[in-house]
Amino acid sequence: MKFVTSETMRAIDSECIDKLGIPGLKLMENAGVGTVRFIERELGPQKNRAVTVVCGKGNNGGDGFVIARELRRLGANVSVYLVGHRGDVSGDARTNLGRLGLERVVELSDGRSITGFVEVMTKSDFIVDAVFGTGFNGVPRGLSGTVIGQMNACGRPVLAVDVPSGLNATTGIAEGECVNAAWTCTMGLSKRGFYIDHGRACVGKLHVVDIGVPKEAIETVGVRDNVLTMRDAAELLPARPFDGHKGIFGTVVVVAGSVGYTGAAALTALSALRTGAGLVHLGVPSSLNDIMEAKLTEVMTKPLAETAARSLSPESLPDVRELLENAEALALGPGISRDQETQSLVRSIVAEMSVPCVIDADGLNALTPEKVGQRTGDAPVVLTPHPGEMARLTGRTVGEVLADREGVARDVAAKARATVVLKGVGSIVAAPSGELYMNPTGNSGLASGGTGDVLTGIIAGLLGQGVAPTDAAALGAFVHGLAGDLAAEALGEAGMIAGDVLDHVPYALMEIGGANR
To answer: Domain boundaries in the chain?
Structure first.
């Protein structure tokens, strides 16, 4: 599913109205009617329902006037309030105010009108918030801030029109009062701010209303930003034929681990198996092999030449080559150490590898985007840095990375000729082509050591089953976050550890697979 910033949505609206000749009034009508259809599907018949519709003076308020008119047509008892004066409403919104009937709209302009408004809201079945839309930026001040606060305080569920009022649709930040919506019906395309910062908490159940924006307008403006829905994720899952055997589900090689970091190697290998890989081989420093054999029942281990520091030695390269001869994917780097000899081995593997590869952790510390981009083979690569690792890769500060996550991820993806997963809240997945995905799943319980190793294993498992690199990265991030969400439901966010996320990967896959049934 595509998503846009406020600026991009304005450009699409302009393309529709000014270039393609679609009347703004028609788009507004489609927005209101589409929202009411959602209300009927979600909340049932509206006859005799008590509904309060709260409108602003702009186009978002115009959508609200259409919604109020349509709900009345269905037999609902609708109370309509305007934050401001009727005379300040203009354009298409004023047309729909007239169609609704000026006398049916109560102006909210002082404390006395607010008192009556609160009394009506508390008796409503639900409230429609149509105060501010996609273009809002800043802090709701004065009366508008008071109205938003009262909507939140009245104890009734709120349906937000386009954007919860008070939320910046681009940044996801609410600088002041912001509607805490039970549902959000957004118009045309989803918005970037719904997936980051405050947006994740205040949007509620999201529905995108088809308002008749032609595909041509979206293509002309050039929307390249996406977010996976559950159904999108289901379509990316690799097939599991009933007569399948381990040979057709892919062999994954994991090259990982050093003294003190056997857990990273184990989590990565097991996560690849839990994601559906048929076979997993784990190459580790030779002195660690016995403990890994005891630790891992289903994974085949391979002792590799090691350094004096008990990390992988460049002398292990021939054995790694041999492992990769019959493999479909490689996971490289978790717990591998920053030993200079080991880092040299990483560079040698990357330079010549012949199978799809995901590189994480200290594997990233051996590389630069340019070095990855100069590899001799055409095997696709997925890089999975957290913001600190991305800062090192790019020579930026962590703050600079966080300030422009999409731009930084796209830049590195292009230079490295690789798919990049920039981890964090709303992880960013950038393809070398510039296409981008933002991940909607996950929670703070994933901020725990080892969860990144689980993600690496998931992506490697998908690559091993033949999923294309960017799809594997986007789906892998979705599965990883959903497993974290399921773990949090069972255990709480504070008590989660990486092993809990790993244990819930099969349940996440089951939930995603059920979306197409």
So the answer is: 3-223, 233-516
